[in-house]
Target: Diaminopimelate epimerase
Amino acid sequence: MRFRKIHGAGNDFVLLSDLGPEGDKEWPKEAERLCARRTGVGADGLVISRLISDRPAVLEVACFNADGSIATMCGNALRCSAWAAHRDYGFQQLTLHMAGVVHEALVSDDSVWVTAEVSEVLPRRLQVVINGRPTWFDSADTGTEHVVAIVDDVDAIDPVMVGRLVRHHADVAPLGTNVNFVQAVGHQALKIRTYERGVEAETLSCGSGAVAAVVVATMRGLVARRAVTVHNRAGQPLTVRPHDARPTRTQWVGGPVTHTFEGVLA
Ligand SMILES: N[C@@H](CCC[C@H](N)C(=O)O)C(=O)O
Model:
């Protein structure tokens, strides 16, 4: 089976997009096997993309986290799938389905954009003490669960230690959550670090996390409701901007996609 190793601003995936007859595997187990950094290909997630129509261009995309759990929304997996469909079929504008939700995608030479559907922000959802200081997290569902803390300095925080604590916090049980630490860094710009549920580690970027950061930062008056640059650990910023037709419900998230290598699974 052929695969692509690909990343969206540092969030890396094994992408299967031309499944033949071997199309029905136990994907959660395959995800664990393929994503293992030492014994597999190594990735934050496994993405399976199927072309279900070419006129209009429609893809069905499934994303499994490295631990085999299903990601109901993964902005970077959608962006990587749209990039691959552009490469394979020349599509520039696509519709993507993930976990029953419809997303739009736009592919240009240097960036890939997808839409994320956003729920209302729940302020002060939980509190933990970080470096001796009680810190509130707001929650925002951007297709999957995220909490966001606005902090003075994201680099003064241990995102794995605190992320794990928050991810397992009783106030977000039983689903748990992805955890974002966000700092305002000047005009319409944020800096972010994200602990991802299902990867159970800090990832270099997270599309739905960037969207959650922007909706929380907007609600808190740190940025205006227009394009915001979100600086991540990869040094490959994502940009989040409101959808023209549905500015309060839908956000675009865009940035680079990099195809690292291709291979054949043994
Ligand atoms: N990295 C993703 C989000 C992946 C989903 C997450 N780990 C979960 O299970 O909620 C993104 O780019 O949005």
User: Anything to note?
Assistant: The longest strand covers residues 45-54. The radius of gyration is 18 Å. The CA atoms of residues 1 and 22 lie 8 Å apart.
